[in-house]
Amino acid sequence: MKLMYALVGSLLCTGAYAQTIDSLDAIVVTAQKKEEKLQKIPVSVSAITSRQVIDYRLWNTKEITAIVPNLYSADPGDNRNVTSIRGITTTSYDPAVATYIDGVNQFGLDTYISQLSDIERIEVLRGPQGTLYGRNAMGGVINIITKQPGNHITGFAEANVGNYGQQRYAAGIRTPLIKNKLYLGVSGIYDRREGFYTNLYNNKDFDRQHSLSGNYYLKYIVNPRWSVTFNLKHLANRNNGTFPLVNGVEDALEHPFELNQNAVTEMVDNTFNTSLSVNHTGHAFNFSSQTAWQSNHRYYKDPIDGDFSPIDGVTIINDYGSKWNKVKVFTQEFRFTSPTAAASPLKWTAGTYLFIQNNPVKQTTHFGEDAELVGSPDKNYGLINTSTGKGFGIALYGEVNYALNKQWELIAGIRYDYEHKKQQVRGEYKPDASPDPIFDFQPDTSATAHFNAFSPKVGLLYHAAANNDLYVTYSRGYRAGGLTQLAADPSTPPLYAYKPEYSNNIELGSKNTFFNNKLRVNVALFYATITDAQVPTLVLPAAITITKNAGKLTSKGAEIELAALPVRGLEINYQAGFTDAEYKTLKVPQNGAEADLSGKKQLFTPDMTSMLALQYQFAVSRKPYIQLMARGEWQYLGEQYFDLANNIRQSPYNLLNTRTGIITRYVDLLFWARNIGNRKYISYAYDFGAVHLGNPETWGFTLRVKW
């Protein structure tokens, strides 16, 4: 300990003075696939800078909930984040909100890495982004950019320790190998924690987790106009107690963070993403090529509990070797843009996007001695579901911004997507007493489906003054259709093709800065209609989710983002969103009949999100540079529902976070706490009643060294 104190003390007394913030950051983003000033883009875009990622203590993409207006994100315990923006939410493995990391489309819920480290900025586009991003960007786009190497050696090392055995160690370095020619970037994270939940079945921590991830860059400058970047990312995640769920809202809240499951296993989750980028800067146009390969292999070492109780009812088996349950995706994008510094009134972007996907799935739903308690007519048998899914698609897109004069600018764009899917399924019945399946409840069969969509966009931007802009846009969103899974229910035929989901969105917004860039206020109003809404229906007891086109949804609301520096050292950030997302028509199968759920609210959509952050920094010394900082955050989430019938409800709640400590040029030593007061609330629930609570009160210390 004496050695650590001496090290910190010596580093505190080293370095030059770094000025206190006197004006808001002038942020440049690539949200529209070219470099632009945030305040000049006629789209609702939230930008979280590298400094804010640290200030908010963001470790995972789900933690941007409410930091971005009308955004809600949560996971049921298996680290697959389900994200909703403006009432458009993920209801299948085709997300409603697209995620891009360093220009690469994270194709599905399986293949993207949600951990955050060494982040340059996070850009979130709200509303349909069909023109530039295409399929599955109906709700919006999360665009994550990590820090890249350059001519100066930079880096950091960070250690976090806290309650529940939390440990998180991160480090990174960016350095030139050959100045002005070849650069290397390396960063990694190791984290672990004990379980938030206790399993009463064996009186042990249930959801103990640890993971190791890395991000590696090699960048080569061919000449002043051409560059090549190779990037590799990986995540090895282990979870002893996936799906910490409790049946019933009352039980979950009355006995928080206690569950009773008899089937305990370890989830092995390995993700590997790699990409090759080629970029050219020219006089006539800029060009980029992004080639990417993604894979994810996720399985349970032993059967996992499927009834979330101590009975021997349902377990799921999916460890069938590396051939199965391994998603693989290849993507390729070519993009052309007008030169950044060109004086022409016409700015344009055009490109093409291609993907190929392979998704072989094999799992057994096993019914044990107590199977009758979960509605099964038989016991001690397994239903083996084998599915081989393949797909490919191609898209062409273009968008232009044309300055009619100094005040008016026209926006127009269109995209065409074509997609082909093929799926082959087989269902087998295997009693425990038999070494092999004895018959097929679904013979080996296959089907194909084709989808295509045009996604137009038009808009008008008015430059009212140098720092005040107004805009209005219309855009169309598109989520791909698909083929249903295999279920042992004869009323639910396998390989039924459900149609794409479409949205039409109108947005009116205003972006403003005042008082020499000390106050920024952005507001937006939106109205969207969604047709052929893809609605998930759970088929029990096999626990298979079937997606069908079942209704029409409307979503309307308002948003505000405010940032201010009222006095030296004090920074205020406030974001709020209001959403009213309601099914105008919704008819779903229920107990052999059809239930009319028209008028019900959308899932995973709080009617209000709000985040107020106050941070004050005070310089106690200029040489050596030492600052004291204190930060408080108030997060409010309104009423929301987790099932289509709106029976599983979370009432409005508040969360309080804090962060305080010492900041110097080279070392930060901070204390942080989240969910102060230990508020109990539902963060995720399945429509059959299984509930996952949000994290309890957590706290810890951070030691960060940077150079």
Instruction: Give the beta-strand count.
Output: 45
Name the overall outline.
globular
Mean pLDDT: 89
Radius of gyration: 26 Å
Oligomer: single chain
Judged by helices, strands and strand pairing, the structural class is mainly beta
What proportion strand? over 45%
Euclidean distance between termini CA atoms:
23 Å
Poorly predicted runs are 1-19
Largest sheet: 22 strands, antiparallel, barrel
Helix content: under 10%
Q: Count every helix, treating DSSP H or I runs of 4 or more residues as helices.
A: 4
What topology does this entry show?
Blueprint: H1 2-12, E1 28-29, E2 36-37, E3 45-49, H2 50-55, E4 71-74, E5 82-85, E6 88-89, E7 97-101, E8 104-106, E9 119-126, H3 130-133, E10 140-146, E11 154-162, E12 167-178, E13 182-193, E14 198-199, E15 204-205, E16 208-223, E17 226-240, E18 246-247, H4 249-254, E19 258-259, E20 266-281, E21 286-300, E22 304-305, E23 314-317, E24 326-337, E25 346-367, E26 381-403, E27 408-431, E28 439-465, E29 468-479, E30 482-483, E31 497-498, E32 501-514, E33 519-539, E34 544-564, E35 570-590, E36 593-596, E37 608-621, E38 626-637, E39 640-641, E40 649-650, E41 653-664, E42 667-674, E43 682-685, E44 690-693, E45 698-706
Parallel strand pairs: 7-10, 14-19
Antiparallel strand pairs: 1-2, 3-9, 4-5, 5-6, 7-8, 9-10, 11-12, 11-45, 12-13, 13-16, 14-15, 16-17, 17-20, 18-44, 20-21, 21-24, 22-23, 23-25, 24-25, 25-26, 26-27, 27-28, 28-29, 29-32, 30-31, 32-33, 33-34, 34-35, 35-36, 35-37, 37-38, 38-41, 39-40, 41-42, 42-45, 43-44
